[in-house]
Amino acid sequence: MLDGFEMVVRIPYPVTVPKLYAVASEVATMCFLRSRGLPISQVYSYSPLPDNPAQTEYIFMEYVRGTNLSDVWFDLEERDIVSVLRQLVQLESRMMSIPFPAGGSLYYSHDLEEVTGGKSGTLLGGDERFCISLDARVHMWYRRRSQLEVDRGPYTTVEQALAAPARKELAYLAHFGRPLPPFQRERRELYEHKPQPPSDHAVNLERYLLAPSLVPANTVTHQFCIRHPDLQPGNIIILRSRDTNELRIESLLDWQHAAILPLFLHANIPGSMQNYDDPSSQLLVPPSLPANTGEQDEEAKGLYHRWLIHFHYWQLWEGGAPCPIVFEAEDVRTTNELAERLQLADENYEGVQRIVGFGAETWVPSKRYKMARDLAELLKLKVLMQIPEEEVRDKFDANWFLNDMDKTEYM
């Protein structure tokens, strides 16, 4: 602007669902957590409906000065990485210590009353400007699921929060389910390229609905709490202090689709910070004492001992409650065999992914698109040349997982 003032204007993508609830919930979540002292941009104005001159939903918010963590993450020294992670853990601890009376997503009460005709959800006892209502997570709404009249909250019990996604999916299968080839085309060969009925998935969902057996016994983990929906470096703004030269987190961005859930459903390491692929993690290599054990102080020895106990705790674990479902031995055998073949197909997919360099849903940066596309075609041709049978070759070509795909029938 002419006076030097800067702000961010955020509008939803055309494919964003549900637009109204996603925008309204993001605004309320940001404002509520900011009022609790968390580093979150100030919201200046917003519209969860497109009934405005811009004809789109929007959020006007504070522009936070600093550096996006994703721009420097791999160049940081170890002390800076440790500092940022420690701050993240502290922020998450503060955030997830805020108790909520129900599950779902957070809204301003007046927003919900305007669009639902007076229904405001479960009010927050300490601040009735806010309420908890419909779960705005993508999987509760995407594709034709947005057409369903199903339970999306507010969730008043842990069991309800566990069961709602499965009941939604069962309703989707009942309304729209029909035999289709597997969506993941690299797996189709294992099913002889035949359409698969939705009934198997429905049976598994019915088994999952034995939700009481899935609830942890420790009631502390039943508390409804909120967590950032996509905690990755691209959503973290940092700034280095001129006085101490220490990095500090200035803001956490992108609160769209945030959900309030039982603590145990939020318990995980953010995907971008999880370590899956190194041999030590995969093989669970036991910790070993260093050569200078005798020179270590008691604190260092104690740290190693706790590490060792943590590594081996599974050997002492007595397990949970008995499985409430009995499976036939033949069913277990065939399922395990299929799982092994599916794992091999997934590994082949991951091998091509590493060579071509694409991300989730075969996404690549626009500047690398042509090169990645050409490389994918070359790989396909090499495989086709090694298949002697014409019929098998044609099926492979038609189901190559990097071909363009019409997803309409899966929507």
TrEMBL record:
Gene Ontology annotations for the cellular component aspect, listed alphabetically: mitochondrion
Concerning SUPFAM superfamilies, the annotation shows: Protein kinase-like (PK-like)
The coiled-coil segments of this chain are none
Q: Return the InterPro entries for the record.
A: Kinase-like_dom_sf, Mito_inheritance_9
Which domain of life does the UniProt lineage start with?
A: Eukaryota
- Can you say what this protein is called? Aminoglycoside phosphotransferase domain-containing protein
Q: Which organism is it from?
A: Gloeophyllum trabeum (strain ATCC 11539 / FP-39264 / Madison 617) (Brown rot fungus)
